[in-house]
Amino acid sequence: MIIERPSSARGHVRTGWLESRHTFSFGHYYDKAWMGFGPLRVINEDRVAPGAGFPPHRHANMEILSYVLEGGLSHQDSSGGGGVIRPGELQWMSAGHGVEHSEFNASQDAPVHFLQIWIQPDRVNAAPTYAQQAFEPADRHGAWATLASADGRAGGLPIRQDARVLGTLLAADEVVDYALDAGRLYWLHVVSGEIEANGRPLTAGDALGFADEAGRLQLTGRGTGRADVLLFDLPH
């Protein structure tokens, strides 16, 4: 089964300093048909005004990934983690038995544009932890790079779930493949740009879910510039 999630169908929330697009139900946006996909619970595309952000708030038992597209995102948490996340970097905070954190635009002049991703962990009430990793764009040009994986065994950040988060950057006519296993779930999210996925045209914010599907997923870059694409390989 292939599930389509067009960008235009996502939830949309706007406040004075925040504009968010929600792939799945979150906060003020609720749709019982879109509560998540396997352990993938949240993909929020956020734009935060200069100098603004999320004051200290608490999370527990969630793997939280932040992926910055433009600008800088300043993070502080009660586990001792903190810093500024820039484009090309991924931040991981495992909330464990409970952690308080804040996120603010690191600039007083320019907005920050980022994805926040939540994955439910495979264990509960572990100790909170934090890490941040930079990824060379050249390693993703026309190829998959592992950005996060189960306890870091396959590379990338060491999330607490039997999952892999992969990324690629595709110029026009560049092709990457991924083998689908019917015993796994897959969620494909176009961060920016244009691609075709097994012949289906997709643009920024569009997503496809794959359940009980086997065979080859082939992505082809389209349009100008490079498309930025994430793939989540998840337990069923």
From TrEMBL:
Residues where Fe cation binds: H57, H59, H101, E103
Coiled coil: none
Record domain Quercetin 2,3-dioxygenase C-terminal cupin: where: 147-234
Gene3D superfamilies: Jelly Rolls
Keywords carried by this UniProt record: Iron, Metal-binding
Keyword Ribosomal protein tagged: no
Cofactor: Fe cation
Details of cofactor binding: Binds 1 Fe cation per subunit.
Gene Ontology MF: a single term: metal ion binding
One Pfam family hit: Pirin_C_2
Record InterPro entries: Pirin, Pirin_N_dom, Quercetinase_C, RmlC-like_jellyroll, RmlC_Cupin_sf
Domain of life (superkingdom): Bacteria
UniProt-recorded name of the protein: Quercetin 2,3-dioxygenase
Biological source species: Lysobacter daejeonensis GH1-9
